[in-house]
C-alpha cells in the first residue's frame, strides 16, 4: 500500500482514483453480449455461459426439485445463521414500510397524498463469480417482499457442475423469490432487461456485481429498465486515530480486499499513528487467508493517507465517498455526524464492516466508485414507486381555479385553463 503523507487537497483526486478496467473495451464487450441476448434469447445465455463461465447448462430455470435437493444438503448451523440474519434484515427494513399515507390539505377542499406501490416485476442479481454471495439474496429479496413486489426473478452464475449453491437456493426460498435462473454477468442483466423464453422480463434490476455486471446495468438503463445504482467492486475506508487497534483495522481492510482484485481499501490515519503498525498487522493476517492472492492484488490498489487530525480525515473521506466507512476512534459518534458521503457507516471499535455485510440488519448493496456522493444503498424505497394522488371538492377547485387559469394562460396553454373554467 502506498503511503501519502499530508497530501494537499489538489492531490486528492489522484489518490481517490479507483482501479478500473479500460472503459471503452468493457463497453464493447458488454454491448456485444447485450445484443446477442436480445437477438438469440436463451440460446445466447447457454452459449455465453459455456464460453465465459465454462459451464454447460441444459435448462436455465432452476426447478422445484433442484431447490428441494439443494437445500436439503445445507447444514442446520448455516440454515440457522441465515434465518437469524434474515430476521434482523427484516426487522430493520420493515420499519421502512410506509403503509399510512399522510393526507395534506394544501388549501380547504384540496387533499393531496402519496402512496407507495411495489414495483410489480423485479430482477435480483446475485454475484457468484468468485464467491456465491447468498447473503445478497437476503439483502435484495427481503426488501422486495416487504415492498409488495409480485414477481421476484433471481439470476446468478452456475457452479462448474451446473448447479446453484444450496445456500442461494435456501435463502431464495426463504425470502419469496419466484424464479431462479442460471445466468451470470452481462448476459444475466440482458436476460432480465429484455426477457427470454425462460427468464422473465423485469422492470427494475438490483444487485451488486463485477465490472461486467455494473456496466451492463448502466447500459440497459439507457433502454427500458430501471436499476438500483452502480454497486461495483467492494471498497472500505477506515479512519483510525491513536485509540484504534491496528489489528482490528487490518482485519477490516482485509475483509473487503478479499472480495476481488479490483476492490480498494483506504486507511486514513491521524499523524499520531505510525503507518508501519497497520502494514505489519496486514502482513501478519494476510498470510493466514485462503484468498491471500486476491487480497494482495486489491492491496496493490490500496492506500494509506496520513492527515493532521480527524476533521481532515473526515473531509478526505467525504471527498472519496466510500461504499463503507469505519470510524475506528474513541470519538466515533461525534465524527459520524460529519459524514456527508458514504454508503454505510460503522461507528467505533466494535462495529466491523462484515457484521453489516451479513447480519446486523442494514443493507449491504451499496453504491461504489464515488457514487455514494449521490446515491443511497438499497432499501424498501428502492422497490416501490411513490404515486401521488389528489382529490378536490367543488369548493377546492373554486379556491385554486383562478391561480391555475392565470398561470396556464401565461404559458399560452389555453386548453389547460379551459379544463378548470369548464367546471366552474
Ligand atoms: N457494491 C456492493 O454492494 C457489493 C456487494 C457484494 C459484492 N460486490 C462486488 O461484486 C463483485 C462480484 O464479482 P464476481 O466476479 O465475483 O461475480 P459476478 O457474479 O459479479 O460476475 C461473474 C460473471 O462475470 C462474467 N465475466 C467474467 N469475466 C468476463 C469476461 N472476461 N467477459 C465477459 N464477462 C465476464 C461472467 O459471466 C461471470 O458469470 C465483486 O467485485 C464484489 O466486490 C459489491
Ligand atoms: N462487502 C460486500 C459489499 O461490498 C457484501 C458482502 C457479501 N458477502 C460478504 N460481503
Ligand atoms: Zn464483504
UniProtKB/TrEMBL annotation:
MF-aspect GO terms: histidinol dehydrogenase activity
Binding annotation for NAD(+): 125, 187, 210
Coiled-coil portions: none
Catalytic activity of the protein: L-histidinol + 2 NAD(+) + H2O = L-histidine + 2 NADH + 3 H(+)
Pathway: Amino-acid biosynthesis; L-histidine biosynthesis; L-histidine from 5-phospho-alpha-D-ribose 1-diphosphate: step 9/9
Active-site residues, as the UniProt record annotates them: 323 (proton acceptor), 324 (proton acceptor)
Residues reported in the UniProt entry to bind substrate: 234, 256, 259, 324, 357, 411, 416
EC code: 1.1.1.23
Domain of life per record: Bacteria
Pfam family, one: Histidinol_dh
The protein's required cofactors: Zn(2+)
Cofactor: how and how many bound: Binds 1 zinc ion per subunit.
Spans traversing the lipid bilayer: none
Entry binding sites for Zn(2+): 256, 259, 357, 416
Function of the protein: Catalyzes the sequential NAD-dependent oxidations of L-histidinol to L-histidinaldehyde and then to L-histidine.
Family: Belongs to the histidinol dehydrogenase family.
PANTHER family: HISTIDINE BIOSYNTHESIS TRIFUNCTIONAL PROTEIN, HISTIDINOL DEHYDROGENASE HDH
Protein's UniProt name: Histidinol dehydrogenase
Organism per entry: Terrimonas rubra
Gene this protein is translated from: hisD
Amino acid at each position: 500500500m502506498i503511503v501519502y503523507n499530508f497530501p494537499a487537497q489538489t492531490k486528492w483526486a489522484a489518490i481517490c482514483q479507483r482501479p478500473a478496467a479500460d472503459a471503452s473495451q468493457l463497453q464493447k464487450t458488454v454491448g456485444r453480449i447485450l445484443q446477442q441476448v436480445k437477438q438469440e434469447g436463451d440460446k445466447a445465455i447457454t452459449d455465453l455461459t459455456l464460453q465465459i463461465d465454462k459451464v454447460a447448462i441444459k435448462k436455465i430455470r432452476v426447478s422445484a426439485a433442484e431447490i428441494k435437493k439443494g437445500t436439503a444438503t445445507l447444514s442446520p448451523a448455516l440454515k440457522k445463521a441465515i434465518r437469524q440474519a434474515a430476521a434482523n434484515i427484516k426487522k430493520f427494513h420493515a420499519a421502512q414500510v410506509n403503509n399510512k399515507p399522510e393526507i395534506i390539505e394544501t388549501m380547504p377542499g384540496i387533499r393531496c397524498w402519496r402512496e407507495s406501490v411495489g414495483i410489480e416485476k423485479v430482477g435480483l442479481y446475485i454475484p457468484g463469480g468468485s464467491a456465491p454471495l447468498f447473503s445478497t439474496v437476503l439483502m435484495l429479496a427481503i426488501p422486495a417482499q416487504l415492498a409488495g413486489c409480485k414477481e421476484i426473478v433471481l439470476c446468478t452464475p452456475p457452479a462448474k457442475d451446473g448447479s446453484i449453491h444450496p445456500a442461494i437456493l435456501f435463502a431464495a426460498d426463504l425470502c419469496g423469490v419466484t424464479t431462479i435462473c442460471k445466468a451470470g454477468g452481462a448476459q444475466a442483466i440482458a436476460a432480465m432487461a429484455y426477457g427470454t423464453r425462460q427468464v422473465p422480463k423485469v422492470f427494475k434490476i438490483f444487485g451488486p456485481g463485477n465490472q461486467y455486471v455494473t456496466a451492463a446495468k448502466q447500459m440497459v438503463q439507457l433502454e427500458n429498465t430501471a436499476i438500483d445504482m452502480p454497486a461495483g467492486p467492494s471498497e472500505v475506508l477506515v479512519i483510525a486515530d491513536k485509540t484504534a487497534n491496528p489489528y482490528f483495522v487490518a482485519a477490516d481492510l482485509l475483509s473487503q480486499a478479499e472480495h476481488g482484485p479490483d476492490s480498494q481499501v483506504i486507511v486514513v490515519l491521524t499523524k499520531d499513528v505510525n503507518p508501519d503498525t497497520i502494514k505489519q498487522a496486514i502482513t501478519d493476517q494476510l498470510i493466514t487467508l485462503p484468498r491471500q492472492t486476491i487480497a494482495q492484488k486489491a492491496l496493490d490498489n490500496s492506500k494509506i493517507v496520513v492527515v493532521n487530525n480527524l476533521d481532515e480525515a473526515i473531509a478526505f473521506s467525504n471527498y472519496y465517498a466510500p461504499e463503507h466507512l469505519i470510524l475506528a476512534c474513541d470519538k466515533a459518534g461525534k465524527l459520524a455526524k460529519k459524514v456527508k458521503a458514504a454508503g454505510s457507516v460503522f461507528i467505533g471499535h466494535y462495529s466491523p464492516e462484515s457484521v453489516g455485510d451479513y447480519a446486523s440488519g442494514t443493507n449491504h448493496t451499496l453504491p461504489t466508485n464515488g457514487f455514494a456522493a449521490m446515491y443511497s444503498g438499497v432499501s424498501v424505497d428502492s422497490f416501490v414507486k411513490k404515486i401521488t394522488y389528489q382529490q378536490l371538492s367543488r369548493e377546492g377547485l373554486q379556491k385554486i381555479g383562478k391561480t391555475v387559469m392565470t398561470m396556464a394562460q401565461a404559458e399560452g396553454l389555453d386548453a389547460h385553463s379551459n379544463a378548470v373554467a369548464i367546471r366552474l
